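Hi R.,

As promised on Friday, here is the backbone we talked about, encoded as structure tokens. Could you run it through your design pipeline when you get a chance and send me back a sequence?
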């Protein structure tokens, strides 16, 4: 798992390291790592045109020292100082000694750059960029250069990923010592591009992370194949209440996703029995109430089931059990009117709202998506999977920020598939939040695989699930090019 940290946690670790090393050593480690990764992205240095956007303080210093390394390797480096009086003096000396030069904002050269290093504002920055910096960030975005942020993209809140106004839009971010939360959640995820982590020695001084991102290896660890002694009842029996006679699609997708995630048994107890039976003869279909379905180890309830009196009665019946339950879609609408249905439960419960559904139950999400998911989880004593570009899963313990997915997943029915995946994993006995986090990871990877051949529909996810699970188990990257917010290093 990859730990995700706040700026305060990183600063505290930096202070502890600084007390044990010579002055400037930490900045040299960061700058060397930044230069090394930049060289790897470029392929070579000789003759490459590099522009440094340099703000005051240590972030600008990192950029200047990295520029000195690049200049020493034959790059043509110019530094544009946004605050010449407060630019890092040692970094300026190093850059000039290596053959780099300082240029004014009017002579920035961004229209001819091969590489732009954004060292305007570091992890202490708040709010959007000021006008001069915003103009340079826009010019960099319009130019041909590879855009690399130093530690965090300037204008992005390092803790929340919030962007208030103008911000640098990086293709890559080289971050030092620890991954900052704002690089993988909120708008910051899209602004950061691919995230490269440089080890500068903070590890022993960082607290145990309470916000993490799963890797493929982490997810694969919960997708174990059946053993010789397993049967259909020993790998998790999932009950599904989804879809309706008028709209059977949600039931078909949710049931198919549960079946395709892992071999075992799925019992369907909704009102789209004919459609589900036709699509998935492998499922055991009952036309009665959920209590008539037989042995179940976890329920999925809500997708496409409607919100009429019968649906409310069924939801109450499912939530009155002592079994784990995934509450999705229409069931969330009903929970927003009767929160006690979840709040009074003792068994594990996963709520899967998008922002509007979350707002109906808990109030507006706000700037901090991690804090919002935690707030909702604490309020109803459940796990909350807050859907978004970077899905956040929270309960009373560890919080997870998902690092997989693709914008192509923003299409009808993909949430029904996710609910089915969660249910299949939850039925194995894994905890609510971890089940939801693993499911979100698998769902995102499946979307990336399905989208590799063009626009996807929800049914494509169901079809690609076995291949995704198989590739994860074998340690084969199922996704192709990683999405923004992917952490490397």
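Update: got your reply. Pasting your designed sequence below so it's all in one thread:
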């Amino acid at each position: 798992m990859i730990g995700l940290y706040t700026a305060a946690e990183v600063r505290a670790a930096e202070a502890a390291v600084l007390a044990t090393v010579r002055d400037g050593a930490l900045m040299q480690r960061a700058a060397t790592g930044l230069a090394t990764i930049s060289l790897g992205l470029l392929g070579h240095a000789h003759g490459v045109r590099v522009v440094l956007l340099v703000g005051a303080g240590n972030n600008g210093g990192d950029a200047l020292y990295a520029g000195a390394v690049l200049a020493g390797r034959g790059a043509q480096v110019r530094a544009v100082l946004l605050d010449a009086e407060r630019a890092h003096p040692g970094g300026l000396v190093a850059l000039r000694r290596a053959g780099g030069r300082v240029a004014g904002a009017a002579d920035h050269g961004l229209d001819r750059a091969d590489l732009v290093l954004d060292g305007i504002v570091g992890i202490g920055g708040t709010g959007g960029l000021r006008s001069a910096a915003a103009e340079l960030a826009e010019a960099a975005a319009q130019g041909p250069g590879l855009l690399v942020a130093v530690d965090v993209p300037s204008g992005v809140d390092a803790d929340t990923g919030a962007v208030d106004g103008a911000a640098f839009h990086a293709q890559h971010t080289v971050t030092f010592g620890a991954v900052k939360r704002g690089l993988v959640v909120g708008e910051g995820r899209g602004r950061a591009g691919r995230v490269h982590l440089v080890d500068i020695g903070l590890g022993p001084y960082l607290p145990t992370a309470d916000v993490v991102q799963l890797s493929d290896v982490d997810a694969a660890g919960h997708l174990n194949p059946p053993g010789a002694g397993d049967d259909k009842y020993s790998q998790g029996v999932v009950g599904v209440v989804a879809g309706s006679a008028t709209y059977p699609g949600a039931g078909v997708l949710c049931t198919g996703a549960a079946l395709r995630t892992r071999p075992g048994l799925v019992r369907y107890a909704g009102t789209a029995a004919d459609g589900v039976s036709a699509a998935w003869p492998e499922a055991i279909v009952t036309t009665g109430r959920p209590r008539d379905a037989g042995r179940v180890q976890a329920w999925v309830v809500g997708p496409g089931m409607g919100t009429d009196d019968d649906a409310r009665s069924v939801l109450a019946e499912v939530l009155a059990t002592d079994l784990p339950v995934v509450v999705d879609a229409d069931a969330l609408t009903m929970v927003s009117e009767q929160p006690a249905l979840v709040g009074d439960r003792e068994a594990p419960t996963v709520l899967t709202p998008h922002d509007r559904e979350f707002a109906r139950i808990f109030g507006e999400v706000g700037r901090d998506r991690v804090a919002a998911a935690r707030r909702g989880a604490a309020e109803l004593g459940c796990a909350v999977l807050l859907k978004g570009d970077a899905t956040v899963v929270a309960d009373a313990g560890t919080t997870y920020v998902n690092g997989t997915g693709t914008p192509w997943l923003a299409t009808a029915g993909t949430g029904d598939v996710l609910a089915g995946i969660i249910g299949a994993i939850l039925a194995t006995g894994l905890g609510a939040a971890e089940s939801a986090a693993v499911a979100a990871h698998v769902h995102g990877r499946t979307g990336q695989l399905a989208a590799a051949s063009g626009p996807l529909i929800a049914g494509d996810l169901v079809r690609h699930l076995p291949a995704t699970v198989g590739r994860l188990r074998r340690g084969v990257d199922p996704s192709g090019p990683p999405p923004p917010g992917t952490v490397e290093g």
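One thing I noticed while checking it: Residues 471 and 477 are 7 Å apart (CA to CA).

Thanks again,
M.
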